[in-house]
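Example 3.2
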Amino acid sequence: MDDRSEARLILKPNGAMASSESLRQQNNVLPSGRAPAEVSASLVPALHNPQQLPLAPKRRRRWLWLSGGVLGALVAALLYLQPWTPAQLAVAVEQVAVAPVTRMLAVNGRIAALHSVDLRPLVGGTLTQVTVSEGQQVEAGQPLARIDTAAQEAVQRQAVAALDAALVAEEQADATYARSLVLGSNVSAAALAADRRNAEAAMQEVARMTALLEQAQVQLARHTLLAPISGTVVALEAEVGQIADTATVLLTVANLDELIVETDVDEVYANQIAIGQSAFLRLSGETETRAGQVQTVAGRIDVATGGLAVKIGFATPVTAPIGLTVTANIVVDQQDAALTVPRTALVMDGRETAVLLVRDGIARRQPIAVIDWPAARLIATEGLAPGDQVIIDAAAVSDGLAVRPDVP
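Structure, written as tokens:
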């Protein structure tokens, strides 16, 4: 056998090797003319690790592939994470776009009657009678309450007596003057003139007493409170036995067929409100929105409250209690095309108003001009263009920070 056949033989199981070696010893044959010592030396490593020679290249290839895979994964991770570049903060953005805009002013008001009258007594005194109750329907001219009339009735009787006396005196003066005229020349001119003056004075006294009686009657009538309009008694603060004066409101009568909303607008926005502006009204406890319109705007600011009184009418009649809270949104301006930004995007640091835009992965400060208005969104008049990416929450970002848009 040649050298290669010997090598293949050595890689077989131990039993086969023992058989081959015993054959060599028996025949005393040395492969390729080698000395026994050389043969033993060449075979010792193979006997200690019979699989080392053919498997070493495979292990090296396996380690090369494993090392290459790990190195490739590390390179891919580095390329993805890019630790040598600044970390980018994910920010929520909004893309600016042209859209129709309605600018509204939200205020709170209360239901009121268009025609409502507070009744105060025209004279002071004790209430002796209250003829109505709260919520009762009344007609114009109907008696509602009465104040003690005893004293005024006495005044009226005195006026009647004085008038009667004046009428008697007038009748006597007229008779005397008429008799003097009949006597003619038998009565001196002076006496005739005196009788004429007495008759005229008596007539004037009758007129004066008549006026006093009428005044007493008018004053007596003032002791009774009459309904000024037809409507409903919406407030009643009168009780029998109560001492009332001319400053005390005893009753309120209102026509509930025509209801409006009364509200105050802060003086900051006073110049924005005008008669005829549309409004959307929502009564407390309801989800329905009702149409309305500004009917009246006060001509002056209340210096005590700094508010401008405004009355808003309903487009269709409503039924609601007086004083009910109403949320009113008055349409101040409408634009078919405008750019808007959320109020949270504004940067207010003592300088001009600005926003932060995402440009090339960096937050950049952009000055803008807006219409300041009490709303969540503001109309931008300068500084923005369609397509700009505005950072919604400017408080969490600073100018020059590396950012990336957070796309849902």
